[in-house]
Write a structure and sequence with these properties.
This protein is of the alpha/beta class. It contains 11 helices and 14 strands. The chain has helices at residues 18-28, 42-51, 63-71, 90-99, 114-125, 141-151, 180-185, 188-191, 195-211, 316-336, 350-368, and strands at residues 4-9, 31-37, 80-83, 103-107, 131-134, 158-166, 215-223, 234-241, 246-252, 263-268, 271-276, 282-287, 293-296, 374-375. A 9-stranded mixed β-sheet has the order 13-12-11-10-6-9-8-7-14. It has a 5-stranded parallel β-sheet with strand order 2-1-3-4-5, sandwiched between helices. 49% of the residues are buried.
Length: 376
């Protein structure tokens, strides 16, 4: 098993998520960072590469040059590129590396708009590149265990799903204080949407990932509570699923008292499941007529193939690392001419990314028409 070579677009000095990606990739022991276009500012890009100890010849001022040169290098080929830029750059960066035949792991939301996502999906279909999307919650052991329990029919047919993702960090006009993250995430030209794309897509993906159901339509109320803000900062949506199940989704970045309170409950006709990221190592399970119980990572199932052994808390970086492990397995399986391990196929792909933008698009259209039921 050779170390895979990783490149990165975005994530330079002062960025939020690049360091998390580098830590997650390093934790797997299967990737080595060798190249990057770390910033649209050439000086910052160069300084970021230098601080990371990279060869100056593999630190680029733009992703177009990086994709072109890395695709034609002799030796030390690039196995994967992580795209961790603001949303509006996801599509052009990914297209550049698809054209170069380099595998991609892209942050969510996949793109800023649904049209961009659909165009990118077509480009990916015509490329040899593998394509993953970092819906990080899909890397938690207990989220995968919840999916397995539902798939095994242990809670029966799903009837109701409730998911909430509340945060408080944009409860005031944080974007006006010089906060770089708040500035671009509330700029519609760079983000595409606000809470819908930033955290609503996480909640939506988690629902479909755990239940295995497809949401077919929604009725949404989309709000902007902070005066002068140009994107949504709160959304409440009712969901309908193929097969008749119903759901409720709430994503807010103005919920004071909440830091990162993602939680989900799934109710079937024979039992229910509950999970929260604040207690990520535990899953509640309540069979009909029985006692409510807590399943932890040391006590149940076969989903526990992450990096932290049972008894040691699994956190956000470990969950993200699980997605890197999945991508490594897919890359190595293709190279070896074999089928990848089944767990590796749980890595969210470009189809999941498109689903997220379909959700955003439908919610915005529904919200603009006073909550009209709208197809996803």
């Amino acid at each position: 098993m050779r170390t895979l070579k990783l490149g990165m677009v975005g994530g330079g000095n002062g960025a939020f998520f690049g360091a998390a990606h580098r830590a997650a990739a390093a934790m797997t022991g299967r990737f080595s960072l060798v190249a990057g276009a770390f910033s649209s500012d050439p000086v910052r890009a160069r300084e970021s590469g230098n601080d990371l100890g990279l060869d100056p010849e593999r630190c680029y001022a733009d992703f177009e040059t990086m994709a072109q040169r890395e695709a034609t290098r002799d030796g030390i080929d690039l196995d994967l590129v992580a795209v961790v830029t603001p949303n509006h750059l996801h599509a052009p960066a990914c297209r550049a590396f698809l054209s170069a035949g380099i595998n991609i792991l892209c942050d969510k939301p996949l793109t800023a708009t649904l049209d961009e996502a659909l165009t990118l999906q077509k480009a990916a279909a015509g490329s040899t590149s593998l394509f993953g999307v970092t819906y990080t919650n899909a890397g938690f052991d207990m989220v995968r265990e919840a999916r397995a329990i539902v798939a095994a029919g242990e809670i029966g047919a799903v009837r109701l799903v409730r998911v909430a993702f509340p945060q408080e960090w944009l409860a005031t006009a944080t974007e006006a204080t010089g906060n770089k993250q708040a500035e671009w995430r509330t700029d519609p030209a760079r983000s595409g949407s606000g809470s819908l794309g930033d955290i609503g897509t996480h909640a939506f993906h988690l629902v479909e990932f755990i239940t295995g159901l497809t949401a077919t339509s929604l009725s949404a109320e989309v709000d902007t509570f902070v005066a002068g803000r140009r994107v949504d900062d709160n959304v409440t949506a009712k969901l309908r699923f193929a097969g008749g199940a119903k759901g409720l989704l709430w994503a807010s970045q103005v919920a004071i008292g909440e830091t990162n309170g993602l939680r989900i409950d799934v109710h079937g006709d024979r039992g229910s499941l509950g999970w929260t990221v604040e207690a990520a190592n535990r899953l509640t399970f309540a069979p009909l007529g029985g006692r409510r119980m807590v399943i932890d990572r040391a006590s149940h199932g076969t989903a526990f193939k992450g990096l932290m052994p049972p008894g040691h808390p699994q956190g956000f970086i470990e969950a993200l690392a699980r997605l890197y492990i999945d991508m490594a397995e897919q890359i190595e399986a293709r190279r070896d001419g074999r089928a990848p391990a089944a767990d590796a196929l749980l890595l969210p792909g470009i189809g999941d990314g498109v689903r997220g933008l379909r959700f955003v698009d439908a919610a915005l259209r529904s919200g603009a028409e006073d909550g009209r039921w709208t197809d996803i």
